[in-house]
Write a structure and sequence with these properties.
Helices cover 36% and strands 16% of the residues. With 252 residues, the protein is of the alpha+beta class. The protein has one domain (3-222, 230-247). The longest helix has 22 residues, at 25-46.
């Protein structure tokens, strides 16, 4: 992970923690329900000494760096949401990271009117279904707990680039609503997207500011393919702290 690319960006490109008290009651209730769902998933997995990462990797004899888990990714044919888990080599990971989830939405699940952002010629896949958008990545500790959310430049995942507000409009469509390969993990990652929705929104907006700042500072031939810009925004998170903050905002 090229954290140096984030450090080189202006402070205005960094995401800010949203003020939860400013959110509507309905939004806070939705986040509270997601938090309760995550806590219940943790409770059930803990009874057998499991966590969401171990549950997803169950049956894999060896965990190989760069490989997608599960093979072929997890894809919901109804919602067109998709995710996978993988890890980079040790010297390319965040401190304390085991690996991370990448989340996506394919065109079939995108809201009407959403179109790819203007990009250099040849950057747009010919196959319409391959024009998927990356939403956010979730970094996990060796204990199987999320500790950081981040966004990436386009070359990292091979995604198609959509403007920040269009990506934000996609967030509510992310849902993995089937049992395979793991119902607990599918429910967990869907709930994570709801619990941390305000933070994900800020990260996506910071992503676009970072790309524009990088383009302005360095003037690369194609900013979306510049290998020196990998991580475009990141934010430390805690499920426990987020649930407490949501409950505090609701009680107010």
């Amino acid at each position: 992970m090229r954290l140096a690319s984030v450090a080189a960006l202006p402070e205005t490109c960094r995401p800010v923690s949203p003020q939860l008290a400013a959110l509507s009651g309905d939004t806070l209730e939705m986040m509270a329900e997601a938090g309760s769902e995550i806590v219940e998933i943790y409770r059930v997995l803990a009874k057998t000494g499991d966590n969401v990462v171990g549950e997803l990797l169950r049956g894999a004899d060896t965990f190989y760096e760069w490989d997608h888990y599960p093979p072929g990714d997890v894809y919901d044919a109804e919602t067109h949401a998709q995710y996978y888990y993988h890890a980079h080599p040790g010297d390319q990971r965040f401190d304390g990271e085991h690996g991370h989830f990448h989340t996506f939405l394919r065109p079939g699940g995108m809201p009407p009117g959403v179109k790819p952002a203007p990009v250099p010629p040849g950057d747009l896949p010919v196959d319409h279904d391959e024009r998927l958008s990356h939403l956010v990545a979730i970094a996990m500790t060796p204990q199987g707990l999320p500790f950081r959310l981040f966004t990436v430049n386009r070359w990292v995942t091979g995604e198609t680039w959509y403007a920040a507000e269009d990506v934000i409009a996609m967030l509510d469509s992310f849902e993995i609503d089937h049992a395979r390969p793991s119902w607990p993990v599918n429910c967990w990652i869907s709930a994570m997207m709801r619990l941390f929705r305000p933070q994900v929104v800020e990260l996506i907006r910071a992503r676009d500011r970072a790309v524009e700042a990088w383009r302005s500072q360095r003037n690369p031939p194609d900013v979306f393919e510049d290998r020196d810009l990998e991580i475009t925004s990141l934010l430390e998170v805690s499920v426990t702290d987020q649930i407490q903050a949501v409950n505090y905002a609701l009680n107010r």
